[in-house]
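R.M. (postdoc): so does anyone remember the format we settled on? I'll just put the structure tokens first.
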């Protein structure tokens, strides 16, 4: 007999495990968190907790009964009763199963009826809806029983401003960006609607409080956005857009203040983030790039776009200071201050990044402000332009600035402020020689022989030389050094443009206020002029000194220009500077400790060129006359000017032993009397006088002046009595003038306080008066004086 095959019986536990495994493979299994399923018994009966050690592979865990053992019995009974009676709203959703078979032998305690009633009443009244909220205070226990205390308070309505305040973190706490927004902050547009209702009357305090609230919100937004950009500019580059939107704040209470804050914040961000090179992108269509390269290009494009928008907004704000013709709008002081701030931001950007993109546009915007009606705007722009010209290493930005200045002076017909040409004095063109191009051409022409002219290059050789030139050009670009040749070409163009401006001023506007700064520029850069122009320039200076009504400063500049030319390449010219000696000798006495004390620097440079550099071409009588005039000038200057004059006299005495005659007090030897009033140094008989000024300067208030005067009177000894310390002996007159400048109201070294001299009077006992009344009167006077000063 064959047995029938029946279905295999499977237990419920195995079937449930199979179902669970199937759902887990399909990913449909729902995991229960914070709950551990207890295995059901195969046969009926109570579920007992597993004991340690029953299964070796089973992990130990905390179970409910273990926790219940640690809870007090009274607390367990209280919670059971609270859940069953639903006295706490918090426990309404908790289901309680009263297991009577558990804890039968436990001790039970009946709850206090009074306490239960208080708690039930509190829960019921707390859930009742209403406008008024009942606040329960601590109950008081008295002899009569427990007294409950309550206070009714109205519910506060939720305002928009309160929600805004909740979103603003406390000061000093870090702001954690939301994970979904990737740390970017979007401009809160609801701030635009925070303006007060014009139909509701408010007082001044409310207006100020409302403005402070709005301003605080904007400050917080600007600070978080700016700090985010500085921390991670590549990932938070979109913050630029929000900051630029904040610059266009429309709320009238905080419009100008918020715009200023946004301008300054963006200025500091751009100063830190902008690179030192220009950003240039080429279209790479169809070219696959690395992920990092693509991210860098996108970041640079976004940065350049934001920088351009920022400059456009600043330019729009600067139009407040320079309104267009026909615009009759009157701007307030706050708007003018905003315009000045925008000019300052442009200046700082040009100084910080003169080689970045749009630097030429910055120069074009700022040059017209050198001729602005506000003096503080002119000074600020002039300082920025001077800094750029001093630190320029390529010459490109200098050339752009000089061309803009040339166009401005020409378009205004030389009717501009002094600051327009004053910035040109900061140019670094001392090493430029305009004759170099001509000399190089002559050299090339000279070394070309007849044989080289006959030789011609073949087509292959020309192609080869062309490739070599391109290769050299590429090698220059790959080097991390500046191209010396291109820099020299730029500086040559700068020099030509500068002298074009100066010569046009001398020819067309010799009586304008630009003459002084023009002459100063010619004196500083005269050595760069072509040699063929030297003679004409000297004649122009002589004509101006004789015929034009020049001031003392302008005359000193003319003389300085001439002697600068003659001390350099113009030394080969056959020019007699006799008349210029007379102009310098006459104008020295016009310098004093007052307003003209600043002209002493011009006189020092000119005297150095006349008495030191050209000492072999000056006669002995002129040298004595100028030495005497300089020592006389030292009596009417501040101590820094006096020190520079004495240093110059010391140098003359060291280099020319014939000047020692001025230290001799014997006046019998000579050609006559000294005439200090004569304007010709040749005929004043300076050799018949002495440097008596040094005796007066030995009692000067400044100790360093006294040392120099004593050093000269001892005939400038190198060592021994009357010698100078090495740190003073090595300094030039110009360095002494700068180091001891008293404009900061401080002496270097400090002058000691003079000692108080107490007058010693005669004892009255030795004075015998014939008249007794007179003696009594004098005694009373002496007593009164001693009482007053004691």
């Amino acid at each position: 007999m064959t047995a029938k095959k029946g279905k295999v019986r499977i237990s419920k536990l195995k079937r449930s495990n199979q179902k669970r495994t199937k759902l887990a493979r399909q990913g449909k299994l729902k995991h229960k968190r914070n709950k551990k399923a207890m295995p059901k018994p195969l046969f009926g009966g109570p579920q007992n907790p597993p004991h340690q050690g029953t299964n070796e592979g089973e992990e130990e865990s905390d179970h409910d009964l273990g926790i219940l053992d640690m809870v007090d019995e009274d607390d367990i009974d209280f919670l059971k009763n609270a859940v069953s009676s639903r006295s706490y709203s918090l426990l309404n959703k908790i289901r309680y199963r009263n297991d009577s078979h558990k804890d039968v032998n436990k001790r039970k305690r009946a709850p206090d009826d009074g306490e239960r009633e208080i708690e039930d009443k509190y829960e019921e009244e707390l859930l009742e809806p209403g406008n008024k909220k009942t606040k329960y205070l601590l109950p008081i226990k008295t002899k009569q029983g427990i007294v409950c205390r309550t206070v009714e308070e109205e519910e506060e309505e939720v305002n928009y401003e309160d929600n805004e305040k909740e979103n603003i973190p406390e000061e000093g706490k870090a702001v954690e960006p939301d994970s979904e927004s990737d740390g970017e902050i979007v401009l809160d547009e609801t701030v635009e609607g925070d303006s007060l209702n014009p139909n509701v009357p408010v007082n001044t305090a409310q207006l100020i409080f409302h403005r402070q609230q709005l301003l605080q919100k904007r400050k917080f937004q600007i600070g978080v956005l700016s700090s985010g950009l500085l921390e991670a500019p590549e990932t938070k580059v979109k913050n630029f857009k929000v900051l630029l939107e904040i610059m266009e704040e429309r709320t009238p209470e905080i419009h100008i203040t918020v715009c200023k804050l946004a301008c300054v914040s963006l200025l500091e961000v751009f100063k830190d983030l902008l690179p030192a090179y220009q950003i240039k992108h080429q279209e790479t269509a169809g070219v696959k790039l690395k992920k990092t390269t693509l991210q860098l290009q996108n970041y640079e494009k976004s940065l350049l776009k934001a920088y351009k928008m920022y400059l456009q907004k600043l330019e729009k704000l600067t139009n407040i200071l320079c309104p267009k013709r026909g615009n009759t709008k009157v701007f307030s002081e706050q708007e003018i201050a905003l315009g000045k701030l925008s000019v300052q931001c442009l200046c700082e950007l040009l100084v910080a990044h003169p080689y970045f993109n749009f630097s030429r546009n910055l120069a074009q915007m700022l040059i017209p402000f050198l001729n602005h009606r506000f003096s503080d705007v002119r000074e600020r722009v002039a300082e920025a332009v001077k800094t750029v010209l001093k630190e320029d290493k390529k010459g490109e930005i200098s050339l752009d600035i000089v061309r803009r200045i040339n166009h401005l002076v020409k378009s205004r017909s030389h009717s501009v402020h002094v600051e327009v040409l004053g910035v040109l004095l900061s140019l670094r063109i001392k090493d430029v020689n305009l004759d170099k191009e001509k000399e190089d051409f002559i050299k090339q022409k000279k070394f070309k022989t007849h044989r080289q002219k006959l030789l011609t290059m073949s087509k292959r050789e020309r192609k080869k030389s062309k490739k070599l030139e391109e290769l050299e050009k590429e090698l220059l670009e790959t080097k991390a050094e500046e191209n010396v040749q291109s820099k020299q070409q730029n500086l040559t163009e700068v020099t030509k443009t500068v002298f074009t401006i100066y010569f046009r001023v001398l020819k067309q506007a010799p009586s304008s206020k630009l003459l002084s700064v023009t002459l100063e520029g010619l004196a500083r850069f005269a050595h760069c002029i072509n040699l063929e122009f030297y003679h004409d320039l000297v004649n122009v200076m002589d004509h101006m000194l004789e015929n034009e009504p020049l001031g003392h400063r302008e005359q000193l500049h003319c003389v300085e220009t001439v002697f600068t030319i003659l001390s350099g390449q113009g030394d080969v010219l056959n020019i007699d500077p006799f008349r210029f000696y007379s102009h310098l000798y006459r104008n020295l006495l016009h310098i004093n400790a007052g307003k003209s004390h600043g002209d002493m620097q011009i006189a020092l440079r000119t005297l150095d060129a006349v008495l030191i550099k050209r000492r072999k071409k000056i006669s002995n009588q002129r040298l004595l006359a100028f030495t005497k005039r300089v020592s006389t000038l030292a009596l009417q200057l501040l101590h820094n000017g006096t020190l520079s004059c004495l240093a110059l006299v010391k140098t003359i005495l060291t280099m020319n032993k014939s000047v020692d005659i001025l230290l001799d007090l014997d006046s019998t030897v000579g050609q006559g009397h000294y005439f200090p009033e004569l304007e010709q140094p040749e005929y004043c008989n300076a050799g018949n006088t002495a440097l008596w000024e040094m005796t007066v300067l030995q009692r000067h208030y400044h100790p360093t002046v006294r040392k120099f005067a004593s050093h000269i009177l001892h005939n400038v000894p190198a060592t021994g009595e009357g010698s100078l310390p090495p740190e003073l002996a090595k300094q030039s007159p110009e360095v002494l003038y700068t180091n001891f400048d008293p404009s900061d109201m401080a002496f270097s070294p400090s002058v000691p306080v003079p000692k108080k001299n107490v007058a010693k009077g005669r004892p009255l006992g030795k004075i015998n008066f014939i008249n007794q009344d007179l003696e009594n009167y004098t005694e009373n006077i002496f007593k009164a004086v001693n009482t007053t000063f004691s």
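R.M.: ...and that's the designed sequence above, right after the tokens. Also worth knowing: Residues 209-281+291-357 form one domain. The two ends are 151 Å apart (CA to CA).
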